[in-house]
Amino acid sequence: MPDQPHPWISLTSHELTAEIDPHGAQLSTLTDRAGRDLLWNGDPAVWAGRAPLLFPIVGALVGGSYRLGSKTYQLPRHGFARGRLFSVESTSSSTADFRLRADEATLQVYPFRFELDIHFELTGPTLSLTACVRNKGDSDMPASFGYHPAFRWPLPFGQPRSSHFIQFETDEPAPIRRIGAAGLLTPDRHPTPVAHRRLALVDALFQDDVLIFDQLESRSVIYGSDDGPRIKVSFPDAPYIGVWTKPGAHFICLEPWHGVTDPEGFSGDFKEKPGVFVLPAGEALSTTMAMTLVEA
Length: 296
Description:
Blueprint: E1 9-12, E2 16-21, E3 26-32, E4 53-54, E5 65-68, E6 71-74, E7 87-91, E8 95-101, H1 104-109, E9 114-123, E10 126-135, E11 141-143, E12 145-147, E13 150-152, E14 165-168, E15 198-200, E16 211-213, E17 220-224, E18 230-234, E19 240-244, E20 251-258, E21 277-279, E22 284-294
Antiparallel strand pairs: 1-2, 2-3, 4-12, 5-6, 7-8, 8-9, 9-10, 10-22, 11-21, 12-20, 13-20, 14-15, 14-17, 16-19, 17-18, 18-22, 19-20
């Protein structure tokens, strides 16, 4: 654990060890019982993220701003949660609960009284995360949320980077979406790169940034190679998944989203933004992602 102003929270099982940084409630290490790193190390020379949480938007906004009625607000790509300190609500050897609440700083850029709770639970070979977005205000609250875990590519099991793939639970015949230079959704649809449920991982796929599956059939994927353990990522309720790396980097991100980046030219109200969910006063939305180390 690095020297941190806010100590990381450690969870253990017989199969895995996880550490979570309260800053962003970010999963920051995930190791198997032999101590091998499954998660990207956040090298800032390449990409400083490890598994950031995306809230209250996923992706970018046209011009970096959004409109609510007659008012305009600015938000950075993927929102502000990943840069905020969460309170540690409870911990045990295998569970941890974190919370982010609206405050004066968030209200300046996102004028809603929200609570964002993140529950981590480590059971055997599975680490599960459940996010709960709650509207604590008295009017409708639009929001998006996304997971963004970055796994080692290659995984630390002795297989070459070129042998790694993502296998979807079911066929994914629908075309995919891409983003332009500003990080916005382009109108074109592209032929699926998935063949016989499998996406072979090559750097050329990511020359134009993320692959966005917005007509998703699968509820899980398995990442790894034909030999050695793999990682199963389950997302039972996410309507989108993004797959991303920087070409040549030693990580691959598998990102279940409740939301998506702005389409190019979008100028509507934030409540009309594609992928946004709207919570009535007092209501909540929960979304779960699980990561399981699967023996070959």
